[in-house]
Design a protein that fits this description.
This protein has 86 residues and is an all-beta fold. It has no helices and 7 strands. The chain has one domain.
Length: 86
């Protein structure tokens, strides 16, 4: 489920918004690891910003991930286009 699904108002008749749903079957895609720092957690504690944070009020945490994905079989995916009424 996502809130970032693709929509298009140009495909619909009379200004109806058309929603596009992708359905992936088993083995549609594959992923692989990359050597090195494929997943990295980054933490900066309070006060690590020096004079940019003189009151030690800011700490941050984040992550970076690197991976490879490939579509294995296009027959295992379908795009459904549909309109929604309220």
């Amino acid at each position: 489920m996502t809130t970032n699904a693709s929509t298009s108002s140009t495909l619909g008749v009379a200004g109806i918004t058309v929603h596009q749903t992708l359905i992936f079957g088993a083995n549609y895609y594959g992923i692989s690891r990359i050597a090195g720092k494929a997943l990295q957690n980054i933490q900066k504690p309070l006060g690590s910003a020096g004079s940019a944070d003189p009151l030690d009020q800011v700490a941050t945490i984040g992550w970076k991930a690197t991976f490879v994905a490939i579509r294995l079989n296009e027959n295992f995916c379908v795009r459904v286009e549909h309109a929604v009424s309220s």
